[in-house]
Design goal:
Two copies of one chain form a homodimer.
Chain A: H1 3-10, H2 14-22, E1 30-33, E2 36-38, H3 41-56, H4 61-72, H5 78-88, H6 98-111, H7 120-134, H8 144-163, H9 168-201
Antiparallel strand pairs in A: 1-2
Helix pairs in contact in A: 3-9, 4-5, 5-9, 6-7, 8-9
């Protein structure tokens, strides 16, 4: 198909597609004349993935390049690509202090959760511990075990969801969409569950 | 105490405290001379709550006024104040379409969760359903039951945390801090749990 049709099918404007081509995120089409190229289904799928990474995952073009790089490595395993992917679709993390860092590491070790030392999620967790202390809510960290139990259930459902897909690019798009939309869904459901639990435990409706 | 000491104890600058006084968020101190006033422990506690609402909860001054208004109603119940509070510390919600709205309501009814018709969390949930459809991830909504189960566990822990406190203002500050820091903690733990589950289920470390 021509670039115009690819644009119509994906909703991505032609100048944006050209930008992705220049940045190497999208491989060149097959030249049919000096200034016309033909694109296939693989291009459409890749373009949808780029769109999910940038629009939903809020990734920078450089970060998209890294994720696609991991995807195109010949020796990639699904678990490895998921890891690169997932660290890119990260929470906003600030640097925390050493004591809080050790506490978070101890917590994760106790749960038997392995993690990448540079994982932004670990930094985000440390940041929460530091902020809770600053605000004088030291006991907030006692919640973390209950949260982690709940997150284990969430993660099992997340994996079910992505592993139902068969193509690797589909799986990755599922991770981006599922991670971002999942965060929003979980935040909303948490508030609704709080109201239901509050009504029951405080004996009111 | 003088306004300067209150500023030192809470970390809130004097001009900010004066602004809260003008906006009626903080009740006037006891005048000791035409241009000097004395403040008590109730002022310090209220100031800490305003700080939690604005800094951590990202509430506007108008929203802080509403929450404090609910708190100062003579006939308030804890459940009612928690509701006003919690709707203010809301997720960002966009308006969704009617079909998605009905689907979200059916979902909540099936779980037996009562909710306020204007609850921004319901709108946020609708928004997630709409976005998933737009992105061609219709099956994402099948996740919501697993997420809701997990959120029920989270909400029980959240209520345990706030009900451990005795003063109403402490409870509310616990809700704000717990809701905002909890979202960050849960997002981070979800990613770490995904990695642990992915390692186990895909048979790699």
């Amino acid at each position: 198909m021509r670039i115009g049709e690819m644009s119509r099918r994906t909703g991505v404007p032609v100048p944006t597609i050209k930008y992705y081509l220049r940045e190497g995120l999208l491989s060149p089409g097959e030249l049919t004349s000096p200034n016309q190229a033909r694109y296939g289904e693989a291009h459409v799928r890749r373009l949808k993935l780029i769109r999910a990474l940038t629009d939903v995952g809020k990734l920078s073009i450089a970060a998209v390049g890294e994720v696609l790089g991991a995807l195109d490595e010949p020796e990639q395993s699904l678990h490895h690509v998921l890891g690169v992917m997932q660290r890119s679709v990260s929470t906003n993390a600030a640097a925390g202090d050493e004591a809080a860092h050790q506490e978070a590491e101890k917590f994760l070790a106790r749960r038997g959760w392995h993690y990448h030392p540079d994982d932004p999620s670990v930094r985000a967790l440390v940041d929460v511990v530091v902020k809770a202390r600053e605000l004088g809510h030291d006991r907030f960290v006692e919640q973390l075990d209950a949260y982690a139990d709940a997150c284990q259930g969430i993660a099992e459902a997340d994996l079910d969801h992505v592993l139902r897909r068969t193509e690797v690019e589909d799986v990755l798009e599922g991770v981006v969409v599922g991670t971002m939309l999942g965060d929003a869904a979980i935040a909303a459901l948490r508030r609704l569950a709080q109201q239901a639990v509050s009504a029951r435990r405080l004996g009111e409706v």
